[in-house]
Design goal:
Length: 359
């Protein structure tokens, strides 16, 4: 069975406001002195995972709590045959969820180790036990989970400060992932412009994108639990547009190069194209995005162009990248607040019941 965007109305924890759910560990949250995760701790972990970014807001993950261990399971039935034919973005999304899960467990003053079982749909197991409080950096990133949103608009003209950018790049924190700021310019503009024109004219692609956006518009939006809302998508031209629709204006290459030069772009690259590499790129992406949020910056991610056949290899070649690009992260100073995106009810994220429920 495959899974498409939800079309029914559900009583949902959908439009969460900025940061309204994130508890303050050690201040208001009761932590367990025993090794097993208490229901309140499980709820904090599920909430953190729920707010992770995901391709088309498809939320392709579930959690299984076993004592003090938490399995993150990939929902391989969540498919996007046109945007993500290989499921690469689905694993990147699971990586983002894993980053949130790890940060939330640390925020609960748990020591964590992460293992990567070989089972088909298993992404990772986070093993936890009572430990020290989180580092200040990780606590700040945890608190940024509820404030992070995709910001697909033009940024304010003030550039990202070099010191902030250095900390954002450091946050990737994985030798297997290279986070690089590419030379802006004609090559990137030319390639993004080309990809945009291809996607804009691709009827099957556009049909799939419609399916993941249409149910979030108008009166039906209140019941939406997944997909990308119109307000979050907007109709700005590249690079701010993010996802290219039939109506997305495509600036010419010169104009696009100017626009790209005004933004801070980070390309996340890996040495190979394995599941572990995709997962690691997703973890690094989310850690960087949260670090940017900590610094009061906003951002969004582009993977759409990277799915054109041969695009990544060409991009790596033309920009001299240190590996295969997995995602492009753009960040800057926001000029407005990005609208929230809906989420699945928290109970749907668990493979099992929790005594007393989650909400
Ligand atoms: C792996 C991955 C790929 C994504 N690709 C794109 C993209 O190409 N364009 C875009 O505008 N947003 C992209 N996004 C952002 C998602 O659409 C966004 O995270 C989702 O709609 C939830 O909204 P939020 O980030 O505001 O919570 C991507 C996110 C992830 C994790």
């Amino acid at each position: 069975m495959t899974f498409g965007p939800s079309t029914g109305h559900r009583s949902a924890v959908s439009m969460n406001g900025p940061g309204q759910w994130i508890p303050a560990p050690g201040v208001t949250m009761k932590t367990s002195a025993t090794a097993d995760l208490a229901p309140s701790e499980t709820a904090a972990l599920v909430q953190a995972v729920s707010r992770a970014p995901s391709v088309h807001n498809s939320q392709p993950w579930q959690l299984r709590v076993r004592g003090a261990d938490v399995d993150l399971v990939e929902r391989a039935d969540v498919v996007l045959p046109w945007h993500d034919p290989e499921g690469r973005d689905r694993l990147l999304s699971c990586g983002a969820a894993l980053a949130n899960l790890q940060l939330a467990a640390q925020a609960l003053s748990r020591e964590i180790t992460t293992s990567f079982p070989a089972d088909a749909d298993m992404v990772a197991t986070v093993h936890t036990r009572p430990g020290d409080p989180p580092t200040l950096a990780n606590l700040a990133r945890y608190h940024a989970i509820g404030r992070r949103r995709s910001y697909r608009r033009e940024f304010a003209p003030e550039p990202v400060r070099a010191a902030d950018l250095a900390e954002i790049l450091d946050a990737a924190d994985d030798p297997a992932v290279h986070a690089v700021t590419p030379p802006h310019g004609e090559a990137l503009a030319e390639m993004l412009g080309f990809a945009t024109r291809v996607f804009r004219a691709d009827t099957a692609y556009q049909r799939e994108l419609d399916a993941w956006t249409a149910h979030t518009f108008g009166p039906r939006a209140l019941g939406a639990v997944d997909g990308v809302p119109e307000a979050a998508l907007g109709d700005a031209p590249l690079p701010a547009a993010g996802l290219v629709r039939r109506t997305t204006p495509v600036p010419d290459d010169v104009r696009l190069a100017e626009r790209l030069a005004a933004e801070t772009l980070v390309v996340l690259c890996t040495g190979d194209d394995t599941r572990r590499a995709h997962l690691a790129a997703g973890v690094a992406l989310q850690r960087m995005w949260l670090e940017a949020t900590v610094h009061g910056l906003a951002g969004s991610v582009l993977t759409q162009p990277l799915h054109l056949t041969g695009f990544r290899e060409d991009l790596a070649d033309r920009l001299g990248l240190p590996g295969l690009p997995q995602a492009i992260f753009r960040c800057g100073n926001p000029v407005s607040v990005a609208p929230p995106s809906p989420r699945l009810p928290l109970g749907d994220l668990l493979c099992h019941d929790v005594p007393g429920g989650l909400e």
